[in-house]
Amino acid sequence: MPIAVNTESLKAGVINELMETWRQQFPVYEKQQEVLMRQLKYTNIRNASYPFKESLPFVKLWNYGMPRQYQTFKDRVLTMNIVPYDLTIPWSGWDEEDDQLGDMRTHVQMAVKRFLMLPDVLASEYFNGTADLNPSLLTAYDGVSLFSATDGDGAARFGATGGNIITGSGLTVSGIVQDFASVQQRIMAFVDPTAGKPIFSEEDVAYKNLFVIAPKEANQVFQKASQSEFIKIDNTSNTAESNYIKGTFEYSLNQYLTDTVDWYVVMRHSYFKPFAYRGPKDVRTIAADMMNSDKAREYNENALYSDVRTRLGPFFPACIIKVNNS
Questions:
Q1: Domain residue limits, the chain
Q2: Contact status, residue 310 vs residue 118, Cβ threshold 8 Å
């Protein structure tokens, strides 16, 4: 009776499953990350430059009989490299033979999602202020870190004292209500360097356009602040007041944040984002087995090698605020 060798079909199935998972899940994660990250156009240039306009000129009075007044944009350049990331999934040849549960596919699906979670982890390291998977924490185009009170010249960042950091009132319901209003006012105070006018309009910074990122430990207090009809604003009084921010904003818990009391507010904007992300073109995969690997033949261990090249860094810090309660 002939024996069908199914090693190649198993290998092809694993690779196909990984690629299919990537194809289906990537848009889901991309949607979740769109508030934070501007997806840069793919290029295979290792160190690429992306020019953009930081600010726009403002209208001027045009007196009768006078020529037009030419104004220029303020150009900025974002330079970012790409670095490789590896995910290797080994499995024993004996395990493959004894796979009675058929769960190899499930493990592959779970593993490929690690690639999809990578941007979240990379961004969180900027919140935490410590690089791990990031080779380093890049500075923004104005010469300082993502969160800073001053710019690279030592001036108030974006023309506002305190820059994109505000001192929090404590991680309480009343503190969140007060600080949420302060965040909106701070963003409205940001001015561009070309005309000295506000960067964002009042509509841009409406509460409905502000998205909160909080540590998991803050879930209860943010649930109350975002959903309660009445809250006690003044802790010295027993009188409850109407919660004017109820239902006006969304928040998300970030399980990678190491500080339990600091939180962040991102302004939803169609162009400007806190981060720029050089996403991968695809996941590259290579399977090693008895047919093509000396290690597999010696140790009876197959492996799926996968890798991507990507990078994340600060883009436009004016649309994100850190509420510092530490």
A1: 7-324
A2: yes
